[in-house]
Amino acid sequence: MAANTLVNRNHSQPCLVPDVLNQVLRHLLPATHATILSETPWDLFASSMVCRSWYIEARPLLDKSIQLGLFRTVIYNNRFDIDGMKRYIDILAESRRNELDDLDQIEQVTIDVSSLEYYRLDQKLNTLKELFHLRPRNLVELKIVIARPNQMYPMTLNEVNNVFHDLRPFSHPIKRLDLKGYRYTTDYTKMNSLLTLLSPQLESLRLTHCTISPGTNSALRMCSRMREVSLSDVHVTGETLAFVLPAWPDLRQFHYTHSNRQKLDHTIEALAISCPRLQSFALVNLGPMDNTAVTISNVCAVVTRCTELRSLRLVRISWVRISWVVGLVLTDASHKRYRRLENLDLEGCLNLDDRVTVGAGWSELRTLSLARCDRLDESFLEWAVGSCPKLEKMVIPGHLMEKTNMWIRWHGFHRHRGNTWKREGGQPVVMSICPSTQKRGICRVLRWFIRSKKK
Length: 455
Hints:
- The protein is α/β, with parallel strands linked by helices.
- It has a domain at 1-68.
- It contains 14 helices and 16 strands.
- The chain has helices at residues 18-26, 42-47, 52-65, 82-97, 121-133, 157-167, 189-198, 214-221, 265-274, 296-305, 322-330, 378-387, 401-404, 438-454, and strands at residues 73-76, 108-112, 141-145, 176-180, 204-208, 211-212, 228-232, 235-236, 253-258, 280-285, 311-315, 343-345, 367-369, 393-395, 413-417, 420-423.
- The strands form two sheets. Strands 1-2-3-4-5-7-9-10-11-12-13-14-16-15 form a 14-stranded mixed sheet, with no helix packed on it.
- Helix 9 (265-274) links the parallel strand 9 and strand 10 (280-285).
- The protein is globular, with a radius of gyration of 28 Å.
- InterPro entries: LRR_dom_sf (IPR032675).
- One of its GO terms (cellular component) is SCF ubiquitin ligase complex.
- This is F-box domain-containing protein.
- It comes from Jimgerdemannia flammicorona.
């Protein structure tokens, strides 16, 4: 927290010698290290703005007594003390008048609506409005959580909608919005007006357990600067997201998680056509394997058309097989498609059970996750390690841990945590691990070792 000058000219001379002042300020230190906002030593904070000499003595003590990044996220929940927050906002206002940067540390505001008592909601929202009135220049993210309803003082849907409505005039600088609803069938109608207000600058959106209505789609189509979208257990009514995606030509990330049976073919087809600069694609099925929501052809279209794709995650997808995975690097290889793929996650794809019969690989692949692929054959790991020269991290399914434990170390991997293996440096040891040549490879290493000892 660097300071230039303290603007208050009436307090420019020190009142106490530094040693005495330091001892006085130490009495304001908290008994424990402050890890949440309510534990902040506000008296010490205020003392740091009395004059320049007080700032010089108090600031180091303050920095040591609070957790680094404590003010980066301001959380409004049932642990939030109104009086403490009011004092915090007053101190921030004084800090700005003194040309200090405390206010600029705020990057995110999180509002846990479900934990706020309805009878104190107006008071708490008023302090939130006061914070927004200060216009923290680095505040770019707003997170609203309605996931855990307060059992003693439950808020009605109308009261939750009013929270969205009250935030509208103060949310101009927000670029990232994260909304976590209670049930995906609940329609937060005022959410659409908030999205509309944020649309000129909104770049990142995360929706969990929310309803995407025709009104929501209209608001989303206005978000022309959208770069990242993550949707989890959303309920789409009316037209699909296929009508929204053409408005997001610069989309870089699209992640979709669902637990019930859905049909997403039109959406993913539109994604492949409308978002050619996509770099990260994830399709996560949390339900049974037969709930796979997209056919293989449309995912192939994403991989084929989005030539900047770096990360691909497919969880519990029924049609993912070895032949399809390896085919990603063989199809149209002359044009070097798929060669930029750096991260591949196939968690829980239980149909990865056939053997590898080809020898191509991804030249840029750095991480490969095969967690819970319980039918995977060892030959696929051999193919991946031998064919992907930049591979640095692997997550191996549990049933192959013992089989791969010895030979994978020859390629420079070490066990990091659980089923995760890492390799330093990125280049493998020059040695074949194919079963037909493994013995000859070991013999070559032994002959080299014997010759080196003779020298």
